[in-house]
Write a structure and sequence with these properties.
Elements (H helix, E strand, L loop, with lengths): L1 E6 L10 H15 L3 H15 L5 H12 L5 H12 L4 H12 L3 E9 H10 L4 E5 L14 H14 L2 E8 L5 H4 L5 E4 L4 H9 L5 E2 L4
Parallel strand pairs: 1-2, 1-4, 2-3, 4-5, 5-6
Amino acid sequence: MKKAVVVDLDECLVRTNTFRAYGQFAVREALSCFRFDVLFALLFWAAARKCRCVSHERMKYRMLRKTRLFMTDARLHALADSLCARADTRIVAFLARRRGEGYLLFLATAAPESYAAIVAARMGFDGYCATPVPREKNEVWKENAREEKCKNTLSALRAADAEPAILLTDHYDDLPLLRIEKERNYLIAPSPETVRRCRAEGIRFYTEKEL
């Protein structure tokens, strides 16, 4: 079975919250072409989340539903270009070394598939799993986060006859993946709470300084 390096996207491979970047990009585009329906919807759901009237998952669902058709391929590629330009060069170099050693590279993220797939292709990943963009009003939809992300990551790796050998993440949301026995876990610029939770569960990890 092949070994894989599994990498988180937000605040890890790319040192920003990519869904926030997506929202900001969509707002600018909506303003530029006078799509006030898109603009007001994005601002409404962002405000509702800031006031804690809705969950992060609910906000993401509603924003993705509203922008599904508005965010054309051209816009998504432009966004992906800006995200790739912000990739952490140390992690990019680390992945290149692991690639040279025969590891597969896999992007696992809660970010929307619409642009995560483009980023994965641009940066030479062998596969990815991400949050699907909702299409039907009443469809079953889940954010690719926490246990769902772990399940989907393992499923995609099995399909590629691979297993997680190294994990890079910044957040305790990935505890389900961190708990899996592997060669190494790397915490990239983790919060004190992330470090505390990992230590409380006896999870061994390395820091970005040890990449």
